[in-house]
Amino acid sequence: MKASRHCRYCLQPIVAGAKVCQHCQRAQRLWIPQIADLISLVVAVMTIGLFVVGYFQYQAARTDRNEAAKALAESSRALALAGSLADENRRLVASQQAMQAQIAKSFGELFTDICMGLGGSFEFGSYSCVLRNGARIHLQVPAPP
């Protein structure tokens, strides 16, 4: 009778020197299954570690993207505000220039009326008036800025 022993895994009787169980097909040496289990454990830990690192990178990228979107929205609002302020400034400058032109025209008409009322002659192109007695009235009006 051949010497027998039991399989480490399925506990069925096997030949004493057998390297593989004929019932469950598992190796009977201790170091082969342990190395396989160790390799599986290392691969599992690495897989979980890579998943965790990838998750944190995803969260960081998502946060950066949200911050960039907020900055873009703020800069768009600032640009729109700057554009509306520039339009308002152009409108005010045009209005100011129109008022200055109207004031100059009204002043010229008033000066002409005063000069003529005093019996003088008005010299066109300047604010000068020569009165009957030869006196000259000359107004120096600074140019608008």
Explained architecture:
This protein is mainly α. Helix content is 60%, strand content 10%. It has 1 helix and 5 strands. It has one helix at residues 31-117; strands at residues 4-6, 13-15, 121-123, 128-130, 136-138. Strands 3-4-5 form a 3-stranded antiparallel β-sheet. The mean pLDDT is 84.
Identify the notable features of this structure and list them briefly.
145 residues; three-stranded antiparallel β-sheet; mainly alpha; two-stranded antiparallel ribbon; 5 strands; 1 helix; 60% helix
What percent of residues adopt helix (DSSP H or I)? 55-70%
The backbone outline, from C-alpha atoms, is rod-shaped
Strand order of the largest sheet: 3-4-5
Summarize the helix and strand pattern as letters.
EEHEEE
Q: Which structural class do you get from the secondary structure elements?
A: mainly alpha
Largest sheet: 3 strands, antiparallel
Report Rg: 51 Å
Outline the low-pLDDT stretches.
none
Terminal Cα separation, in Å? 124 Å
| Number of distinct beta strands | 5
How much β-strand is present in the residues? 5-15%
Average pLDDT rating: 84
Helix count equals 1
Q: Which secondary structure elements does this structure contain, and how are they paired or packed?
A:
Elements: E1 4-6, E2 13-15, H1 31-117, E3 121-123, E4 128-130, E5 136-138
Antiparallel strand pairs: 1-2, 3-4, 4-5
